[in-house]
Amino acid sequence: MTDTNQKAQGPFADIAPALDQLTQQVLFGEVWERGELSKRDRSLITVAALIAQYRINELPFHLKFAQQNGVTRDELVEVISHMAFYAGWPAASTAVGIARKVFAEST
Amino acid sequence: MTDTNQKAQGPFADIAPALDQLTQQVLFGEVWERGELSKRDRSLITVAALIAQYRINELPFHLKFAQQNGVTRDELVEVISHMAFYAGWPAASTAVGIARKVFAEST
Amino acid sequence: MTDTNQKAQGPFADIAPALDQLTQQVLFGEVWERGELSKRDRSLITVAALIAQYRINELPFHLKFAQQNGVTRDELVEVISHMAFYAGWPAASTAVGIARKVFAEST
Amino acid sequence: MTDTNQKAQGPFADIAPALDQLTQQVLFGEVWERGELSKRDRSLITVAALIAQYRINELPFHLKFAQQNGVTRDELVEVISHMAFYAGWPAASTAVGIARKVFAEST
Amino acid sequence: MTDTNQKAQGPFADIAPALDQLTQQVLFGEVWERGELSKRDRSLITVAALIAQYRINELPFHLKFAQQNGVTRDELVEVISHMAFYAGWPAASTAVGIARKVFAEST
Amino acid sequence: MTDTNQKAQGPFADIAPALDQLTQQVLFGEVWERGELSKRDRSLITVAALIAQYRINELPFHLKFAQQNGVTRDELVEVISHMAFYAGWPAASTAVGIARKVFAEST
């Protein structure tokens, strides 16, 4: 983490620079780049984890990011439906509402 | 659900027959069979959701089932590592311990 | 699930028709109709689970639905207070805020 | 809380006497005794909250206590099945396993 | 709880007077006043628990209260960063957003 | 993370070497070493987060580690009691049971 290359600052840089650096360098710079799982697979499991944990604020970004990584809208809807059984209907219900908005904004 | 075909009974049949029937007919009979997501994808998101929610009792079955559905051990370990960032290190730590046992049993 | 009767469409029908059908036919069509628990009992446990899991988006509907199923406002407030001990004060605090709004809207 | 009557000590008294006193005097001494909800209702919502939150260590006591408070085994199984939809199949699956043991021990 | 002194009413008094009384007398009147942990320590662990559990509605009050109890803004940001590892990045991300607002309001 | 210094291997090295390296280098090597919070403070919030999230497998290590970092047993018990109010009685109850064992083992 003593990397001296300039990395793009992320959304936490203003008040949480250390967390921001970890996010940019470790989470997005290393973990998401590891070849052991494709980015499509990583997006699938990230979206699943966010739905299951009711992380409502982070879901919009990752629903969009998942589409950039090759997950289709139909697949995202199917992830939500699958999660109804593995995290409960309320988690799926909230995810449907968020997905509806995210999809509408970029149509 | 008034299907008169005999379906295999599942693990809840002894004391929770209604839940068992829903599990066999709806969850495994319908949801897992829907073509909108491959079984490999469904296993990936199921394992992610179990790790993220610390569902320690259900994780062994789904780590094995995921392998039947084409997820490799290296990929499962990578899912766990990815979940360290999306559900916290403790969730990943427990999943490593469970995976170690599951992998050892079937070596 | 090969039922050919027309069922009312629910709130997920626009983007998640499969989940919507499961909701209408299985969750509301079968589970809530099973006689093993009264609808009042089902509403009590549903509201408790929503409070305990901080499912803030689904709580308004179920606070209203519980009243239709015979749970009084005083009982709903008591469920919230009981949950303070079984899911923590923050979960109860948020539920009080939601109940206050729901009750005010239908006075 | 300045009650000078001797109260029975509870299970936390050895290492957490303050929590034990709060448990005996406030939680069981006051909250469970409030007439706004019957003990049967309180047991229903407590069991639901424990299942939904995967509180595996506390569930055995409350499955037994619920029966003392008038909830039948069939009703407890139905609570678990209902929770499959409101907290996910894994939570219900674990609860079935715990209920099976609890019921077997007291047959 | 047979205290006859007038205590200040809290935010739940309008619709949940029993919970309000427990909050004022037991939680804030007793627990927060116990000398076994300083108020600064209690604020640290309360904020940590709220972040970890994604209790988004209660976090603003406790971020302010923590500052009254001697936790600095830099320390609060560090708690959030630490929680990224113990509860996942999404929990930390949401906490950063809330802290940003809370800090801005009282600058 | 291209550090060529040898670091001690941790408990995940056998099957999850990448996660192990992140744990040793980033979590324990950097985050726990940052001076913005004392190690005592970090232990307090870590234990609180583990209790609140019912991370039963990780709690024993961190109850011991907290004592190494200067948190007394009485303070740990008080953290548990405080968490009863912020994460619910069941989470505290399980933590008492774990603390009892951990304390007994090292008496």
UniProtKB/TrEMBL annotation, chains A, B, C, D, E, F:
<feature type="domain" description="Carboxymuconolactone decarboxylase-like">
    <location>
        <begin position="17"/>
        <end position="100"/>
    </location>
</feature>
<dbReference type="InterPro" id="IPR052512">
    <property type="entry name" value="4CMD/NDH-1_regulator"/>
</dbReference>
<dbReference type="InterPro" id="IPR029032">
    <property type="entry name" value="AhpD-like"/>
</dbReference>
<dbReference type="Pfam" id="PF02627">
    <property type="entry name" value="CMD"/>
</dbReference>
<protein>
    <submittedName>
        <fullName>Carboxymuconolactone decarboxylase family protein</fullName>
    </submittedName>
</protein>
<dbReference type="InterPro" id="IPR003779">
    <property type="entry name" value="CMD-like"/>
</dbReference>
